[in-house]
Design brief:
Length: about 300
């Protein structure tokens, strides 16, 4: 079965998603959205590390340093929530041991591939011609989305290679949606501690990598059509995470792009699953009925 036929068949699942093919939301419309997720980058890290790129993006965009991850503060549960617009209670990904064919809690709704619908399937169902990409350093991120919904699906061992692959793809292919996962900050936290100089040095290196991705958006000529979102899955405490402390729970969310309020600190409570809803809103699609996230509309200029 070719990909176009597959997309036609799974489009029948729209009845469960409360969507209509090609139906647009009434929100601000962008042609491209890039999400950069820095694994383990607690919100407190931005106040202790030297991050000129993220600082400048906050100055020209909107941000919060008190967004909340979901419990447990493990990577799988939170990356899934970020791209699925819902929490573990809905999508069923409750630990890093989750597998599509081996889990305890079933999803409340099933989309393509038998899993809870992600932003990738929302985009592809609405626009089969849209180019989508997932570039990730943590290989296990690849089990959290519907493979058939991603045109460019690749993993790399280093943060530098991950950034290079993502930057090249953005510059050459101008995807409608690109999700980039960078893992080394979490690795530094586990090895040296989430309040160590090595950890903050990792955040500073991530800031440099973000700058390269921003430059790729500019070189692609899509800067004025792109919403950039930067966030994380969790923070950390001592050399671990998974608990309920604010150091583990609070994550940054930064939005930047034409049409985003400048230097605006978001005062309302933001949750990690609001990011998928914001992507859907920004691209103009109605989110699935099973999502519980809310678009961060206060960041958009009227």
């Amino acid at each position: 079965m070719n990909k176009r036929m597959y997309l036609f068949l799974i489009s029948l699942t729209l009845i469960f998603f409360n969507l209509s093919a090609q139906e647009k939301d009434a929100g601000n419309i962008y042609n491209h959205v890039v999400v950069i997720g820095i694994d383990g980058m607690g919100a407190y890290g931005l106040s202790k590390a030297n991050t000129p790129t993220m600082d400048s993006l906050m100055a020209v965009g909107s941000y919060t340093l008190s967004a909340r991850a979901v419990l447990p503060t493990s990577s799988s549960s939170n990356w899934a929530s970020m791209i699925m617009g819902a929490g573990p209670e809905q999508h069923g990904i409750t630990s890093n041991e989750w597998q599509l064919d081996n889990h305890t809690l079933p999803p409340t709704i099933e989309g393509p591939g038998g899993m809870f619908p992600t932003i990738f399937s929302v985009i592809k169902i609405n626009n089969p011609d849209a180019i989508t990409a997932a570039v990730y350093q943590w290989k296990d991120f690849g089990r959290l989305f519907e493979k058939e919904m991603v045109d460019y699906d690749t993993s790399a061992l280093s943060e530098h290679r991950t950034t290079q692959l993502a930057s090249d793809f953005i510059a050459n292919s101008k995807p409608e949606f690109c999700f980039i996962h960078i893992d080394h900050v979490d690795g530094a936290g586990h090895k040296w501690g989430y309040d160590s100089q090595k950890y903050y040095g990792g955040i500073e290196r991530a800031d440099e990598l973000i700058k390269r991705i921003v430059e790729s958006i500019k070189s692609a000529g899509i800067e004025n059509e792109t919403l950039l979102i930067i966030s994380a899955d969790h923070g950390g405490l001592k050399k671990g995470h998974g608990g309920e402390s604010l150091l583990e729970m609070q994550i940054p969310v930064i939005l930047s792009g034409k049409g985003i309020k400048k230097g605006f600190e978001i005062n309302s409570q933001i949750n990690i699953y609001d990011i998928a809803s914001t992507v859907s809103f920004a691209l103009g699609y109605i989110q699935p009925e099973g999502w519980i996230g809310n678009p961060i509309k206060s960041s958009f200029e009227e």
